[in-house]
Structure formats: C-alpha cells, structure tokens
Design a protein that fits this description.
It is built from 13 helices and no strands. It is mostly helical. The protein has 3 domains: about 70 residues, Tetratricopeptide repeat domain (Serine Threonine Protein Phosphatase 5, Tetratricopeptide repeat, Alpha Horseshoe); about 70 residues, Tetratricopeptide repeat domain (Serine Threonine Protein Phosphatase 5, Tetratricopeptide repeat, Alpha Horseshoe); about 80 residues, Tetratricopeptide repeat domain (Serine Threonine Protein Phosphatase 5, Tetratricopeptide repeat, Alpha Horseshoe), CATH 1.25.40. The N and C termini lie far apart (about 120 Å).
Length: about 240
C-alpha cells in the first residue's frame, strides 16, 4: 500500500475519532470524549481543535492543570484561537491563578474585542489579584460599551460594596433596575446598601421586594433574619392615656 493511501486512511480515522469525541463532549461524557481526542491527536498532532476539545474535557473533569496544558498547545498551534485563550483564562481562574489568567483574557479580547464576557472575566481576574481600581475601571468601560450587559453592573456594585462604597453601589444597582425592574438580585443589594447606610425603613422595603420576587433564594434566610433584627431594634413608643 502506498504512503499516500496510508496517510489518507490515517486522516480518515483521525477525523472519526475527533467527530466521536465532539459528540461525546456534547453529551457530557467527558472521560470517553477525552480518550477519543487523545486518539485523534496521536494521528494528527497539529490539529488545534483536538487539543482544545481535550482541554475542555479536562476542565469539566476538574483537572485544571491538564486542561491548561492542552489548551496552551491549541493556542500555540492557532494564534487567533479566541476560544482557546478564553478557556485558558477560565482554567487559570479555576486553578486559583487569577494573575495568570489576565494575559489570556487580554489576548482573547485582542482577537475579538466585541465579546463582553472576556472583558468581564478580565475585570474579575484583576479583582481577584486585588487590583480593585483597575477592575472597577474595566467594569465601568464594559458598562459604557455594552449598556445592556447586567453582569458588568452586578460585579461593579458587588466590588463597591466590598470596598464599603455603599452610595456608589446604590447608583449602579439602580441602573440595573432601569434595565430590568424584576432583577431580584438588585433589590437584595439595594437593601444591604441602605441597611449599611442606616436607612432601615428604606432597606426593609427593598428586602421585602426581594422576598416577593425570590422567596426561596439562598439569600432569603439572611434577609428574613435581617428584617427581624431591624424590627426588634425599632424604638417602641408607649402611648399614655390622659386622665381628666
């Protein structure tokens, strides 16, 4: 058999392994998918998509160091591979290396500057590296460029609350409600900000609105407890009858 025929047969087998791996990954069968991606790579070591798929499988199997290894290969084989750089950034965050994620998100944004999710993750990475001013700047720029992207407002307000800048956080949370009046997380955040600012009556109103929208949320118990404490600390007025 000629070398050309052997090569053609190998390529066909590699494609079969790759297609089978993709189908298994879509079914969340990550171990089986990984085995097929590895077989595809053994046949064709220059297929960036196979390394990418293998990296994503290991990410979902929570083997982040392996995921980073194979995603890195994919990014080197295909220098404009947005998805590979984005997933590399995510895996660095999951591995607890936020400062290592930054360069990958920057590269992803350079390849595709119109994707707000990568910009958001860049802000989160800087925040986790305790570069708070830079993170706030990124969130604000994202809000300006993608005014309907609620996640940017949410992360900015959460960071402002962490920094105890409750008045600034209130402004951002109110912007969320202008976009979506039923965004329940904003009501909880506003309630907390007002509570911290000593505006208990207003805080109660927003806490109750949150509970109306999301009574069984994981935050519901905290808010119910806070309402009870506010109620118990309200001054009790005694009305004295006047004797004639």
């Amino acid at each position: 058999m000629s070398s050309d025929n052997t090569k053609k047969r190998d390529n066909t087998a590699g494609i079969k392994f790759y297609n089978r791996a993709n189908a298994l990954r879509l079914e969340n069968s990550y171990k089986e998918a990984a085995a097929n991606y590895l077989n595809a790579i053994l046949i064709d070591r220059d297929n960036a998509q196979s390394y990418f798929g293998l990296g994503v499988c290991y990410k979902n199997l929570k083997q982040y160091s392996k995921a980073i290894k194979f995603l890195d290969v994919a990014s080197k084989l295909k220098e404009d591979y947005y998805e590979a750089f984005y997933e590399l950034g995510i895996c660095h965050l999951l591995e607890g290396i936020p400062c290592g994620a930054i360069k990958n998100f920057v590269r992803a944004i350079q390849i595709n500057p119109d994707t707000p999710e990568a910009i958001l993750q860049l802000g989160i990475s800087h925040e986790l590296c305790e570069e708070y001013d830079l993170a706030l700047m990124i969130y604000q720029k994202l809000i300006e460029n993608s005014p309907g992207f609620i996640k940017a407002y949410e992360h900015k307000s959460t960071l402002l609350m962490k920094l105890e800048k409750y008045k600034e956080a209130l402004n951002v949370l109110n912007q969320i409600l202008k976009i979506n009046p039923d965004y329940y997380k904003a009501y909880a955040g506003i309630g907390v900000c007002l509570d911290k600012l000593g505006k208990n009556s207003d805080a109660v109103r927003y806490y109750r609105k949150f509970l109306d929208l999301k009574p069984f949320s994981t935050q519901a118990d905290f808010i119910k407890n806070r309402l009870e404490k506010i109620k118990s600390h309200r001054p009790q007025y005694k009305y004295l009858s006047v004797c004639k």
